[in-house]
Amino acid sequence: MSAIDERALAVIASTPLVLTAMLQGQRDEPAPEGGVWGAREIVAHLVDADGIAFVERITRIVSEERPYIRSIDPGARLVAGGYLELSAVALVEELAQLRSERVAWLRTLDPAALDRCGEHDHAGDITARNIIHQWAYHDLQHLGQLSEALQTPLIPQMGNTRRFYDV
Known about the structure:
Helix content: 55-70%
Low-confidence stretches: none
Oligomer: single chain
Strand content: 5-15%
Mean pLDDT: 94
Strand order of the largest sheet: 1-2-3
Structural class: mainly alpha
């Protein structure tokens, strides 16, 4: 059994630094209309998902015999958890603290335990190793989403240079 993929760990560890750089100088504005997430919702989701979607699931898979794992409702969790009452900067600070602890924890896991299996109600069979890779992919997906959210307010002032892009 092999150890955790260092590429995945690098993404998980560096996401708070990337978020900090991306949000530098940005206004902490509410999400736009139409159910699209803004910066605060994206970062809040990353903080929330760390515990429920990644740490809890990995912990259950490595310590229980084939646990049944239920899907979550990310939007409802943001409201119920009070995350949207915090600023994006405060949420990134929280994520940075959590991530340093969680990457250290991931490094302590037995490589054989990473291949233990659980059953997700939507995805089917998943291993702890699968979830670690999903965690990194999830971060990158939401960093792309944040990039789009930060680009949108710039579009109206781009004039004819908009023609260089598919906007």
